[in-house]
Amino acid sequence: MLDIRGISKRFGTRTVLSDVSFTVRPGEVFGFVGSNGAGKTTTMRIVLGVLAADSGEVRWKDAPIDADVRRRIGYMPEERGLYPKMKVEDHLQYLARLHGLGPGEARSSTRHWTERLGIASRLGDEVQKLSLGNQQRVQLAAALVHDPEVLVLDEPFSGLDPTAVEVMSKVLRDKADGGIPTVFSSHQLDLVERLCDRIGIIADGRMVAVGTVEELRDRDHGVVLVVEGPPAGWADALPGVQVVAAAGTRTTVRLLGADDQQVLAAALAAGPVHEFRRHRPPLTEVYRDVVSAAAPERAR
């Protein structure tokens, strides 16, 4: 298990991470989401040892991470981290050798991952001559070529076409199914929702929510009602209810202590009820609400 325990980091007077904690379990894909500047990349760099935390620690298999463990991590940076004039095959074999693979192992692993990621035909090309999407595939191959024990990927799906997204998604899911803990950051919340076992949301350097997609979607219980001909604002004064949206006959409310059967009774009093169901928001809506709710706390 990859265990991030209470890490904090300041640059001068600016606090970029404050007591950030989460775990990535064996065989789990963990989505790390937040706006630009929220602290995702800084956290990943601390895991890799590129930066040192001011406090807290990172542990792997219940022991502090050291240089030997970090050599067994597959890391993919958000920025292009490739030598532009090296040929793809030479580049990947070089990186594999740096991680301790022998010449034959490096050649075999390079062939395997370039075939798996659909870039085997580009082995003889210089990196700089590849499209941005294919460079991204090479970067993922570089993170995988040494058969890592844990994956840390910063925006791995950036710039990819839908076909490449599916290929990468399958690779990450297969690695997780093989027991590899995987953490990746992304702004593509629909992809995070579909691919991840658990998700952590970070805002202004603080973890503001961690859980499965289902747990996060169930944080604020809500219901959707369709009521025929209700009086305007019929739900506004209901105790323990917040109206999220109201358009025509459709009203969506968040239950802040109210019982859903009481809300149904009020709806029936307002008019015939044609629909009454639980509201399960998409991750994009959950993310917006969680970050917005955290803003007043950060301001205090």
Automatic annotation (TrEMBL):
Keywords: ATP-binding, Nucleotide-binding, Transport. The keyword Flavoprotein does not apply. One of its GO terms (molecular function) is ATP hydrolysis activity. The keyword tRNA-binding does not apply. InterPro entries: AAA+_ATPase, ABC_transporter-like_ATP-bd, ABC_transporter-like_CS, DrrA1/2-like_C, P-loop_NTPase. Residues 2-229 form the ABC transporter domain. Signal peptide: none annotated. It holds the Pfam family ABC_tran. PANTHER family: ABC TRANSPORTER, ATP-BINDING PROTEIN. Belongs to the ABC transporter superfamily. This is ABC-2 type transport system ATP-binding protein. It comes from Pseudonocardia thermophila.
